Each structure stands twice: as structure tokens, then as C-alpha cells.
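Table 4 source record.
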Amino acid sequence: MTRFTLSLPVLALGTALAFPVCAAPLSQSSISDDISQSTLPEGGKFSTVSGDVTVGTSDGPLSVRTVSGDIHVTQSHGLLDVHTVSGTLDVDHAAGAVEVRSASGNVTLDHADGAVSIRTMSGESTLDHAGRDIMIRSISGDMTLMLDAASQMRTIDIGTVSGDMTVHLPHGFGGTFDIRLKQRRADKALPLEQSLGLTVQTGNWEKESAGSEEVRTVTASGRVGDGRDHVVIRSVVGTLKLVQD
């Protein structure tokens, strides 16, 4: 009887072929050097102080942290998680969910297929072609939001202290609106511009604190179309414009 023996290197090779090792997300950090990656099959984790981060396509979770470095992502298919202080974020197409935290950097998402969460202080937020749930919070940054038609119910929840908001609704949009804004006595025009047939009500002029300027609450509510989407909008001194495209 003939016996065969396998040496350890051959055995190890066979084991590796039978059980392939999964690649881990790429991790890279720098102080001032730029980071550029064309393709990330497993996603990546990047951090810089002032260096820019450029990513072509990420098929896995992508996490980016910068202080002043700008961020550009062409295609993101997994979760995109970005924290920046003053760096700008520009995303061409996000197929997965997006979570952004920014102090003063502007945020621009050209196409967002997944849910979007943006929190910023003074940076402007521009979200085009959005099809899923949206949550945006800002202190003084302006917002421009363009909704696409969606195949399922979604929630659009945006709020600001003093930023101006513009929301573009697709033709045939159906939603239920819950809007609460504030108007200062010095502002002659209502802070709301809309032609959707929403019911608008104004409260009494009141001082919120001793010596402060008089303000009143402006609310708007109603059902448009099938009322499927739930739209919640809040502002302290900012304006809101609803546009039916």
C-alpha cells in the first residue's frame, strides 16, 4: 500500500484555498497629506487634519474624519459616515445610508438612494435627488432639498434656527405636512412660501423674554395627494419655500 504525506506548506496552501481570508477595510491617516483611493472593495477608514480625501468607488462601509480637509466621494454603496469641522463634503452618488456631522463645512449630495442624516452648525446643505428618509439639523446653515418620487413611505424631518430652507417636491408628490416657523415683528412677509393649499395659521405677537423683539408662531398643515410621506419642518427665524416641480 502506498502512503502519501503532505508537507505543512502544501497543507497550509490547501486550507487557504478552501477558506479564503476576507480583506479588511483599508485604514489610512495623515496630518497634511492628501489621501486618494480609486476603488475600495471592502470600504475604508480615513482620517486627516488638513489633507483632502478623495474616493472613487467604495463597496463597503466608508468612514472619513477631517478637520479642514475636503472630501469627495464619487460612488458609495455602503454606509457613508463623515465627521468634519470645516472641510466640505461632495458626494456624487450615495447608494447606501449617509450620516454627516459638520461644523462649518458645506455638504453636497447629488444623488442619495438611502436614508440621509445631516447635522451641521453653519455649513450649507444641498441634497439633490433624494428618495428615502431624510433628517437635517442646522443652526444657521441654509438647506436646499430636492425630493425624487419614492416607491415607499418616508419621513422628511428638517429643522434650523436661522437658516433658510428650500424644498423641491416632485410632480404628483403626496405627503402630510407639519410645519412650525417663527416670524419676527420686523419681518413684514410670512416666513413661508407655498402653493400646495396647506392651512396656514398665525399666533399672537409675543415677547419670548424681557426686552426681546416680538415674535409669533406660524404653522402650516395639510394633506397633499395621497398623504403618504410625512414631512416635519421647524425653524426659529429662518424662511421656508416649498416648490412643486
